[in-house]
Amino acid sequence: MHLSFLNKFDVILLDVGHTFMFRGYRFFKTEDFAATYRSLGGILLTEEQVNNIIFTVSRNIKADGKNPAYYDCLPGIISYLQKHSESKYLPESELNLLEQVFATHEVGVISQKHTEVLHQLGKTHRLGIISNIWSKKELFLKEFDRVGIRDLFDIIIFSSDYGWIKPSIKIFDRGIEFFDVERSKIVYIGDHIMRDVGAAKTAGLATVWINRRGKQLNESMAVPDLIIKDLQELI
């Protein structure tokens, strides 16, 4: 339990993927994107085309997301689909369908145990979300609604809303400005040492690193204020 640590703060900001949502970001070669496409009513493209389009787009956007030149201006999924040789000339309705396929494989699942943790944290702190996602947020919010946590958050900021991705300070400033408290009273919780911990510390926030795999810090990494293996440890 780390209640004494949390008591120093009025606001808790959280990442989503691999912080309290899991089994998302399924963009492996073995994924059957075409089956998702068919389940959503798609009939125009072949299985090979769908699998190639979604996998390639996921690789391209992931690569760009690692490029500092894109931290403040990462394009949306539709932009990447319009550049792909097999989808660039498709009608808007088909591009939207492919975007939905992409989102279906990006969104994860929130467990009951992590839902309970968030409800407990919401009893003592104001909560907010600052999280990177590539697709539009609707399916993520649908999962929030399924487990009954959306109303716990005073503000929910997904990178796809603005085209800013962590470690951009812009996305942190947007969330911080919402709360009328000193930055010293805000703590950020996430699983990525650079995008979450490093960026949040640059923004002037205390940080909690969810180090699920027991990675070792080196001299180039930001030093978190607290290291845990799972969000449950906080309560």
Task: Pick out its properties.
single chain; 235 residues; alpha/beta; Rossmann fold; 2 domains; 6-stranded parallel sheet; 9 helices; 6 strands
What CATH architecture label of the largest domain applies? 3-Layer(aba) Sandwich
The mean pLDDT is: 96
β-sheet strand percentage = 5-15%
- Going by CATH, the homologous superfamily of the largest domain would be HAD superfamily/HAD-like
Shape: globular
Helix content: 40-55%
CATH topology of the largest domain: Rossmann fold
Order of helices and strands: HEHHHHHEHEHEHEE
Tally the helices. Answer: 9
How many β strands by DSSP?
6
Output the CATH class name of the largest domain: Alpha Beta
Q: Would you write up a description of this structure?
A:
It contains nine helices and six strands; from the N terminus they run αβαααααβαβαβαββ. With 235 residues, the protein is of the alpha/beta class. The protein folds into two domains: 3-23 and 108-234, HAD superfamily/HAD-like (Rossmann fold, 3-Layer(aba) Sandwich), CATH 3.40.50.1000; 33-106. Helix 2 crosses helix 3 and helix 4 (77-83) crosses helix 5.
